[in-house]
Design a protein that fits this description.
By secondary structure, the protein is mostly beta strands. It contains no helices and eleven strands.
Length: about 110
């Protein structure tokens, strides 16, 4: 299984971005997550979603970010609204079942 993350970019504070994480192959991988790592900081969990649709969000993004999935496309999304400069980081998707990471996509929020 390989994960391909995309959708990052440069946005002004208050703006929105949608990240995508597409899994290659036809295998179904239910438990997915988004992490992020800012310069000089440890990688942190942003949100995850189980095969049954149960979600978890870090306190810092609760109410602003939404994780979702499209099982027919084997893709997980992270909708990010009301972005803040402190959301600037490289965002990585991860699958728990196969312990696989995507390559990361840069999100930069300007003030």
């Amino acid at each position: 299984v390989q994960l391909q993350a995309s959708g990052g970019g440069l946005v002004q504070a208050g703006g929105s971005l949608r990240l995508s994480c597409a899994a290659s192959g036809s295998i179904y991988i239910p438990d997915m997550a988004w992490y992020r790592q800012a310069p000089g900081k440890r990688r942190e969990l942003v949100a995850n979603i189980s095969g049954g649709g149960r979600t978890y969000y870090a306190d810092s993004v609760e109410g602003r970010f939404t994780i979702s999935r499209d099982n027919s496309e084997n893709t997980v999304y992270l909708e990010m609204n009301s972005l803040k400069p402190e959301d600037t980081a490289v965002y990585y998707c991860r699958n728990y079942n196969c312990d696989v990471w995507g390559q990361g996509t840069q999100v930069t929020v300007s003030s």
